[in-house]
Predict the structure.
Amino acid sequence: MTKVGFIGLGCEKNTVNTEQMIAACRARGYQITGDAEEAQVVVINTCGFIESAKSEALETIFEVARLKEEGRIRKIIAAGCLVQRYREEIAAEIPEVDGFLGVGSFQRIADAVERVLAGERVEWYDEREKLQLEGERVLTRPVETAYLKIADGCNNRCAYCCIPAIRGPYRSRRMEKIVAEAEELVERGCRELILIAQDTAEYGRDLYGARRLPELLRALLKIEDLRWLRLLYLYPDKISEELTALFAAEEKLIPYIEMPIQHAAGSVLRRMNRPGDEKTLMERIRSLRAAIPGVVLRTTLIVGFPGETEEEFETLCRFVREARFDKLGVFCYSREEGTPAGSMPGQIPEEVKERRRDVLETIQADIVEEKQQALVGRTLTVLAEGYDRIAACWYGRSYMEAPDIDGKIFFTGSGSIKAGDFVEVTIESTLDFDLIGRIEE
């Protein structure tokens, strides 16, 4: 039986596409392996968002190509965002790869495997708008938590971002299809669903003529055995009063809001083609904290955007000190060809970007330390994820931590525990961005 191996790179939205490709190959009768060296065909689902992601994707392709040169695998297929973004160059520049699938061709992966094994070289770039958003998935992470993609593509035109050019316009999935997949995931043992899209609050406008995220949430919250429903990628200007009220009223809709703001200086945000400024963003933060008890706010920031002055950077620093985000990620601006920002004057030297990133991370580290210390002595409901045999303790997350991007809670305790259980953990100490505790006896 032909074995097919998969390597998924990039964001969790890409992970869902990888899981769909795995399911399609399994349905065709191929055996799936997690070890590339055991496979006859290796499929690499790439990311091409920023320079570091492109470098990782190319390094992975060349590593797998070495396995092919050594005769340990037969064929390589590259798929996803990097392939879509550089479709004119990539096939010529990487002859070791036998097949290329753009983001509109994920559903044809089983056919691509068959073709390359037959000796053909595949280069398929179907229309992105016709990409089938539905499909079976083989989960690649523990079943207790699952990502649920509600839309693909993006209609925003942020000056630094190439996602609309790669993934195409925003396309919502039909509500009944999302709910059906959610019900299936919960039946399989999922206790935490995480809704994702490039712009989650925009859900439904293209299909229904208006944003329908609150209605979708109400339908999902009716799923009996679902314990937590988490949302990522909520643009601050699109968090409506109706959505805020849902966060405050619905216990299953956990009060964790990830809203990427990217900057606080209005002049920088205008150059980024994003709304808001320091004042309006602070008003939004205060209103969310006043309306939603215990809300956790997470954001991402970009430093070193073209033309960013020291004064604009100081505005951002002042904003971070005042906003006191619970979670915050800082990224150096990545100059991407084909984006408006890529050709803007005033490109910032890398060493300046890195210095500014370090300054912001230091400010945030002090804030996080204070917030972590304030949790000592509190008892938190924790979703157990696994057991660390080296540390001899369990680990998991409370509602305050999203998987893969936030810290964890490590805890000890007697009794029988398994992944997916919810346990009550009393926090005893902190360790950087993690918490240490024990189960109440």
The domain at 3-130 is CATH 3.40.50.12160 (Rossmann fold). The chain has three domains: 3-130, 145-374, 379-439. The chain is about 35% helix and 25% strand.
